UniProtKB/TrEMBL annotation, chain A:
The chain crosses the membrane at residues 42-63, 215-236, 256-275, 282-302, 332-353, 401-421. Residues 211-418 form the ABC transmembrane type-1 domain. It is found in: Cell inner membrane; Cell membrane. Signal peptide: none annotated. It comes from Sphingobium boeckii. GO terms for biological process: phosphate ion transmembrane transport. GO terms for cellular component: plasma membrane. CDD domains: TM_PBP2 (cd06261). The lineage of its organism: Bacteria, Pseudomonadati, Pseudomonadota, Alphaproteobacteria, Sphingomonadales. GO terms for molecular function: phosphate transmembrane transporter activity. This is Phosphate transport system permease protein PstA. It is a multi-pass membrane protein. Pfam families: BPD_transp_1 (PF00528), DUF3333 (PF11812). Belongs to the binding-protein-dependent transport system permease family. CysTW subfamily.
From TrEMBL, chain B:
Its main location: membrane. The chain crosses the membrane at residues 45-63, 125-148, 168-189, 230-252, 273-294, 314-341, 362-383, 430-454. Part of the binding-protein-dependent transport system for phosphate; probably responsible for the translocation of the substrate across the membrane. Belongs to the binding-protein-dependent transport system permease family. CysTW subfamily. Keywords: Cell inner membrane, Cell membrane, Membrane, Phosphate transport, Transmembrane, Transmembrane helix, Transport. This is Phosphate transport system permease protein. CDD domains: TM_PBP2. GO terms for cellular component: plasma membrane. It is found in: Cell inner membrane; Cell membrane. It comes from Sphingobium boeckii. InterPro entries: MetI-like, MetI-like_sf, Phosphate_PstC, PstC_N. Residues 233-450 form the ABC transmembrane type-1 domain.
Length: 429, 462
């Protein structure tokens, strides 16, 4: 026994020298590792900062450009009606034919004459092409001014407007300084920008027409996508049998959520316009197209909200004798509704910012008046931004940015509302 | 009577029948056991109300689509229509003008004949309008009467109503399938017509893209060329290369920093701010790229000595698109890193690795499939993105590697081909649908692969 023990060599591990962390080599290695740790951390911070900085840059550029779009430069134009060629009898403006008389009179020519008389031969270039609209409004308000000399505030032309906002050629700056010296320039809030519609002249454009188009389109989208999305989510989550058909529905919904939006535009063009012959450029078709796009978003959000309602609620309702439909509509749906609404608002915000599919169905027409109904030709806010971005005139730069600010304010407040709802009604079971 | 008036009338009748049936049902004797009424009163109300409205509204919908055809047939049968121009544009113009006069939309007309047809139109509209209204109301009353006789104590109204609700749920979920079929069907159908004019091989592998169609046969350069390789390259160059070079490092490192290093309070603030980047509409990015980024990049290119720099460069569109994608990549990476089991991280830290070594050597390799899936989804989103490239990338189909040159993409060309003057039968218009089909298939494949990768990876750790 002892022999055997003596014969078997005892396995001796090679003598382990403990690492000397204090040695120079190790200290250098640790320093290197810590430096790399700091570098990595810094790169991460830089990535976050860069992304945030880009957002800040984008917003600052838009606000910097767009803030000026909300103001306009006015010229107090002295109009001596007796001196102009305007043939208009004040008494004709009180009767029933007042509008016809106003329409027949050459107010535009008279306004230009007044500008030339006031500011010299270039005078007509200083006032906006639509300055005569202000003159006409003044006459309509008080026909007695005909025959007198009155100061009427009219919008300045784009050149003067840009010069007033510090950015123009020297030549126009000189004209601007000359005007400024007369003390007839004033800068005020551009109310017309919020109440007007599209125009060829940047001093006359407004966003109300496009905004109303957006509103009508969103109403159509919401009325279609919300009920269909919620019902489909309820079916898939609560009732659908596990079979091939249900799988097919789920796969289609998940894929539709990822299909590029322009494909929906092609679908709208081929099906709604060319097969069903619905009116082109109308809010109805835009709403239908966007509803198909938004529905999968609502279904996916709705399913998640329904899934988070605990089964005990269903069991309790079933236990006291509710039918499966009553369980869902009386108990599950009300509890899931905040989550569904959050998803709906996010989906609607996405639809509100969407441009490409609406270009496909012709919502890029020039619409000088707000649409009256869902079958009228209309345009929407993002498309209006796209159209203005293509305009050559420099006056459109600030108007485009101003329209972007309006759009962003709406989108951010919708997203803010969604976050607020989620935080307020979020329930942990 | 107008359609809208009939619609409201039917809905009003439905409401009345709902109330009356509910009242009748509420007077049932409330017995016990088998004498107890089967359904609550409101279910009887719904049963009758739905019988009143649904058949009537279905008929109204059918009638609204059929009656214009019947009206114009009736007008054409009148003697006044005998000497109409035989066919074509003028005939249609006269008819539509006569209709406009008859409905009072316009007064007086361009075609003399239109005015003479207007009375015939007016009587026909009146005639068929009355028929439609009468049948709708008869259906509503018949349905209501039939349903009302059934309101008895032992009638199973709830079962019937619930069966209808289930039907509505099923139809709603089938709309998703219908949409998918609609997209695929319309794209394939129009593309098939395109491929009858242009061979698919030329489309997929040709390098010449100049989609004009000839006005005269002998015109110079009349043969439109539909070789889309340059478009595919431009799409990949902007969406899958330049945008990803921007988005992957920034998105991934943001996610790493926010999940591993940042204090919870910082994270709570920065994450929503990053998500704003995803919520900004693409048209705003496009405007920003065209107005600010592109001119800056062109000046930069000129400064470093690239003379032929375009103001509509691939780089400007790609960079801005990359920024748009950052939150997308970041949130996918966030999810994947969060799914790595905590024990792996703890193990690595316990062995003495620094946090960055843990992230680089343990967390990221473990999360890699999820990150790759996220990147594939991001690529599919980038190549389908439209407005940025429409506004910031050019229209010239160049096969180039120079990021300062102008390239064009599939989505830009779809917009270009379908806006402006279009006649629907031309190869130019149909080419847009062929491009759409390619885009649809590619994004679909990318999504399927990405979702499969992500799913498989999730299962590995569950």
């Amino acid at each position: 026994m002892t022999e055997l023990a003596a014969m078997t060599p005892v396995p001796t591990a090679p003598k382990r020298i403990p690492t000397d962390w204090k040695s120079d080599l190790m200290q250098r290695r640790i320093r290197k590792r810590y430096a790399s740790e700091r570098r990595f951390r810094f790169i991460g911070l830089a990535a976050v900062s860069l992304s945030v900085a880009f957002l800040a840059f984008l917003l600052i550029t838009m606000i910097g450009n767009g803030a000026r779009g909300f103001t306009q430069t006015d010229i107090r134009l002295p109009v001596n009606f007796a001196q102009t060629s305007l043939m208009l009898d004040p008494t004709a403006l009180t009767g029933p034919n007042a509008e016809a008389a106003l329409a027949a009179a050459n107010i535009q020519g008279a306004t230009e004459e007044a500008a030339v008389a006031a500011f010299g031969p270039d005078g007509a270039d200083y006032i906006s092409d639509g300055a005569w609209l202000s003159v006409r409004a003044a006459i309509r308000k008080d026909p007695a001014i005909l025959g007198k000399t009155v100061d009427i505030a009219v919008p300045a032309s784009t050149h003067i407007d840009i010069a007033a906002k510090n950015g123009a050629d020297p030549e126009i700056r000189a004209a601007y300084q000359k005007l400024e010296a007369t003390g007839r320039l004033s800068t005020g809030f551009n109310l017309n920008f919020l109440t007007g519609s599209n125009s060829n002249d940047p001093t006359l454009v407004g966003i109300w027409g496009a905004f109303k188009g957006s509103l009508l389109t969103m109403i159509v989208t919401l009325l279609l996508a919300f009920p269909i999305g919620v019902l489909a989510a309820l079916y898939l989550e609560e009732y659908a049998p596990r079979n091939r058909w249900t799988d097919l529905i789920e796969v289609s919904i998940n894929n539709l959520a990822a299909v590029p939006s322009i494909i929906f535009g092609l679908l709208g063009l081929a099906v709604f316009l060319n097969v069903m012959h619905l009116p082109r450029s109308a809010a109805l078709v835009g709403g239908l197209t966007l509803a198909l796009m938004t529905m999968p978003v609502i279904v996916i959000a709705g399913r998640n909200a329904i899934k988070s309602v605990p089964p005990s609620i269903r069991d309790a309702a079933l236990g006291i004798g509710a039918s499966p439909v009553q369980v869902v509509f009386h108990h599950v749906l009300p509890l899931a509704l905040p989550g569904i609404l959050t998803g709906t608002i996010i989906g609607m915000a996405r639809a509100l910012g969407e441009t490409a599919p609406l270009l496909m169905i012709g919502m890029r027409a020039f619409i000088p008046a707000p649409p009256a109904g869902i079958t009228d030709p209309a345009t929407v806010l993002p498309v209006q931004i796209y159209l203005w971005a293509d305009e050559v005139s420099r006056g459109f730069v600030e108007k485009t940015s101003a329209a972007i600010i309006v759009l962003l304010v709406f989108l951010l407040s919708m997203n803010g509302l969604a976050i607020y709802l989620r935080n307020k009604f979020e329930q942990r079971w | 009577m107008s359609l809208l008036a009939i619609l409201f009338l039917v809905l009003g009748l439905g409401l009345i029948s709902w109330i009356s049936a509910r009242m009748r049902a509420s007077r049932f004797v409330r017995g016990v056991g088998s004498d107890r009424p089967h359904s609550l009163p409101s279910y009887h109300g719904w049963y009758v109300g739905l019988w009143v409205t649904i058949p009537a509204l279905l008929f109204l919908a059918v009638w609204a689509s059929v009656s214009p055809g019947l009206i114009s047939q009736a007008v054409l049968a009148t003697p006044g229509a005998a000497n109409l121009p035989a066919f074509g544009m003028e005939r249609a113009a006269v008819l539509s003008e006569a209709r406009a006069i008859a409905t009072g939309a316009v007064h007086g007309g361009f075609h003399a004949q239109a005015a003479s047809l207007a009375p015939a139109y007016r009587t026909a509209i009146m005639h068929y309008g009355l028929i439609g209204a009468a049948v709708t109301l008869i259906l509503a009353f018949a349905g209501g009467a039939f349903a009302f006789t059934k309101v008895r104590s032992d009638f199973r109204a709830r079962t019937r109503v619930e069966r209808l609700v289930m039907g509505a749920l099923l139809i709603a979920s089938l709309i998703a399938i219908l949409t998918t079929i609609g997209i695929f069907g319309s794209l394939v159908f129009e593309s098939w017509r395109f491929f009858n004019m242009v061979s698919p091989l030329e489309f997929l592998f040709g390098t010449q893209w100049s989609p004009q169609t000839a006005i005269r046969a002998d015109q110079v350069g009349s043969s439109g060329a539909f070789g889309a390789v340059a478009l595919f390259w431009g799409t990949i160059f902007i969406g899958a290369i330049i945008a990803m070079i921007v988005a992957i490092p920034l998105g991934l490192m943001s996610a790493v920093y926010l999940t591993q290093y940042a204090k919870p309070s910082t994270r709570r603030w920065v994450k929503p701010i990053l998500e704003i980047l995803a919520g900004v509409p693409t048209v705003v990015y496009g405007y920003f790229a065209a107005l600010t980024v592109a001119p800056a990049l062109r000046d930069f290119a000129v400064m470093i000595g690239i003379s032929n720099a375009s103001s509509e460069s691939a780089l400007a569109a790609g960079i801005v698109m990359g920024v748009m994608i950052i939150p997308f990549v970041s949130s996918m990476a966030d999810d994947s890193i969060a799914a790595v089991p905590q024990s792996m991280r703890d193990g690595s830290l316990a062995m003495g690795a620094t946090p960055s070594e843990t992230i680089r050597k343990v967390l990221l390799p473990a999360a890699l499939p999820g990150v790759v899936g996220g990147v594939l989804l991001a690529v599919s989103r980038a190549i389908g993105e439209t407005m940025i490239v429409v506004m910031a990338a050019g229209l010239a189909a160049n096969l180039t590697l120079n990021p300062f040159a102008s390239v064009t993409t599939v989505t830009t060309q779809i917009v270009q081909l379908l806006t402006g003057d279009q006649e629907f039968e031309s190869a130019k218009t149909l080419a847009a649908f062929a491009l759409g089909l390619v885009l649809f298939i590619v994004t679909l494949l990318l999504n399927i692969v990405a979702l499969r990768v992500v799913k498989k990876y999730r299962e590995a750790y569950d």
